[in-house]
From TrEMBL:
Coiled coil: none
Transmembrane segments: none
NCBIfam families according to UniProt: mreC
Keyword set, alphabetical order: Cell shape
A Pfam family reported for this protein in Swiss-Prot or TrEMBL: MreC
Matching InterPro entries: Cell/Rod_1, Cell/Rod_MreC_2, MreC, MreC_beta-barrel_core
Domain of life: Bacteria
Function noted in UniProt: Involved in formation and maintenance of cell shape.
Name of the protein described by the UniProt record: Cell shape-determining protein MreC
Span of domain Rod shape-determining protein MreC beta-barrel core: 123-270
Family: Belongs to the MreC family.
Length: 290
C-alpha cells in the first residue's frame, strides 16, 4: 500500500494536473474574480522590473534622437551657410553692378561737347611691354572706330587709338613715352605739350621757359591743336615746377587726371563733322579690305 502512494507522478500526469488547475483558476477568476488581488500584488512586484527593463530602451532612444537632431542641425547649418554664401555672392555682384552703373553714368556725363558722337568701350587687355603704355578695347571697325580716335574716361583724356582691328582696337595712353598732347592752362591760357614718360602717374611738360606763369596745382585741358583731341577736356594737373638755370627750360611735371593704371570703361569720341561717324562703317570696312 505504501509503495502505491510512493510512486512518482509521471510527466503526463503532472501536465494534466497543471492544465486542470489552470482551467479551474481561470473559471474561478472569470466567475468570482478570485485572482484579482493576486494580479494586483504581482503587478506591483513586477512594475520596478518593467521600469528597469525599459530604461536601456529609453536611453538608446534618447541617444538616437540626439544624434538625429544633431545631424539634422548640421545639415541645416551647412545648407544655410551655402545659401548665405550664394546670397553674399549675389550681393557682391549687385554692388559691382551698382559701381559699374555709377561709373557709366559718370562716363557719359563727362561729355563736354554735345555735338560729339560717343560710344562706351571696355578695356579687355593691357600691353605687357613695360616700355609701352597701351591697352586693348573691345571696339573696332565694326563699331566705327578709326585710327587716331580720341579716348577719354569719366575724369579726362586717356589716349588715342593707335591701331584698329575688326572688333578690337589698341589705345596708346597719354603716359606712353612716344605720345605728346597739346594742352592749355585753364587759368593763364598758356599752351604747352604734355609728354608721356612711361609712368601712369606723371607727365612732363616740354619746352617750358623759366619765366613761365604756370603754377603748381593748375589744370591743363586739351587745346585741339593737332586736330586729334577736341578742346576743353581735362588732361593733367601740374604737380612740380623746378627752375634750374643750368637747364635751358624749366622742369615741369604733371599728374594725369585720368586714372590710367585702373581704367576699365572708356568713351570713344567722334567729331561733329561726321567724317568718321559710326554710320560710315561699310566704307571703313571696304577701305580696310583694300
Amino acid at each position: 500500500m505504501n509503495q502505491l502512494f510512493n510512486q512518482p507522478i509521471s510527466l503526463k500526469g503532472r501536465l494534466t494536473l497543471a492544465l486542470v488547475l489552470a482551467f479551474l483558476l481561470l473559471i474561478l477568476d472569470l466567475r468570482m474574480g478570485a485572482m484579482q488581488q493576486v494580479r494586483m500584488v504581482l503587478n506591483s512586484a513586477v512594475s520596478p522590473v518593467q521600469y528597469l527593463a525599459a530604461v536601456p530602451e529609453q536611453l538608446l532612444q534618447g541617444v538616437y534622437e540626439s544624434v538625429r537632431t544633431r545631424r539634422s542641425l548640421s545639415r541645416e547649418n551647412a545648407q544655410l551657410k551655402r545659401e548665405m554664401l550664394e546670397l553674399q555672392g549675389v550681393v557682391q555682384r549687385f554692388d559691382f553692378l551698382a559701381t559699374e552703373n555709377q561709373r557709366l553714368r559718370s562716363l557719359l556725363s563727362s561729355e563736354s561737347d554735345l555735338d560729339t558722337t560717343r560710344m562706351v568701350a571696355e578695356v579687355i587687355a593691357v600691353d605687357s611691354d613695360p616700355f609701352s603704355q597701351q591697352v586693348v578695347i573691345n571696339k573696332g571697325l565694326l563699331h566705327g572706330a578709326y585710327l587716331g580716335q580720341p579716348v577719354i574716361d569719366d575724369q579726362g583724356i586717356v589716349g588715342q587709338i593707335s591701331s584698329v582691328g575688326v572688333s578690337t582696337s589698341r589705345v596708346i595712353l597719354i603716359s606712353d613715352p612716344s605720345h605728346g598732347l597739346p594742352t592749355r592752362s585753364r587759368i593763364s591760357g598758356i599752351r604747352v605739350v604734355a609728354q608721356g614718360v612711361g609712368e601712369t602717374e606723371r607727365l612732363e611738360l616740354m619746352h617750358v621757359p623759366h619765366s613761365t606763369d604756370l603754377e603748381e596745382g593748375e589744370l591743363l585741358f586739351s587745346s585741339s591743336l593737332g586736330g586729334v583731341f577736341p578742346e576743353g577736356y581735362p588732361v593733367a594737373e601740374i604737380t612740380r615746377i623746378r627752375r634750374d638755370e643750368s637747364f635751358p627750360f624749366a622742369q615741369v611735371d604733371a599728374r594725369p587726371v585720368a586714372q590710367l593704371d585702373r581704367i576699365r570703361m572708356v568713351l570713344l569720341l567722334w567729331p561733329a563733322d561726321g567724317e568718321h561717324a559710326p554710320s560710315a562703317i561699310p566704307e571703313l570696312l571696304e577701305e580696310a579690305g583694300q
